[in-house]
Amino acid sequence: MNPFARDAQSRSDPHNIQHLLSLLRENDEQPTPPSIPRVEEQRSSDPRLKGRAQPQPKPPASASANAPPLPHQPPPPRPDLRHLTPSQALPELRRLAKDGTFLRLVMKTKREQDALERRLADSRRERERGDEEEEERWARASLEEWDQMVKAQQLRFHKAGLPGFFETSSPAARDNQRKILELLGELIEADD
Known about the structure:
By secondary structure, this protein is an all-alpha fold. The chain has 2 domains: 3-54, no CATH class; 86-191, no CATH class. Helices cover 64% and strands 0% of the residues. The radius of gyration is 35 Å and the shape is elongated.
């Protein structure tokens, strides 16, 4: 567009509406809309418009309705499986019982637990009865080690999506977790 023609046009169009309409028409003809300049940028580009806000062109309504989802959107939240009963968890347990990655996780966890149980049992047999205070220290240390293993298992299974699992010391919740593991074991054996 000829800048001199725009100056002549501005005398008959003091609010520069014709110029804005031509800009809008140019934008409509382009396949992708250009970035919309901020109000400050528009003011500074035309000395006659200093201090006056210019209307911003609006993107077409259909563009946002038909736009694909943004790639950086987080996935939908996972359902909360923590407080499911064994019967409510059954469909998810059936799926997990066939998941090779999950089964390897279960087997690794089981081997770690078996090793701790053997080590604690061997340690118990090696101890001589007699010093009651030493026996209490050993029992407290063993229980602490067991509780740490249980917490690690709860977190591991929670992250893996096993229903009923979250970190807890509640006897009722732990009993529910034990029942869910028993049911999972039965499902795994049934698939073999």
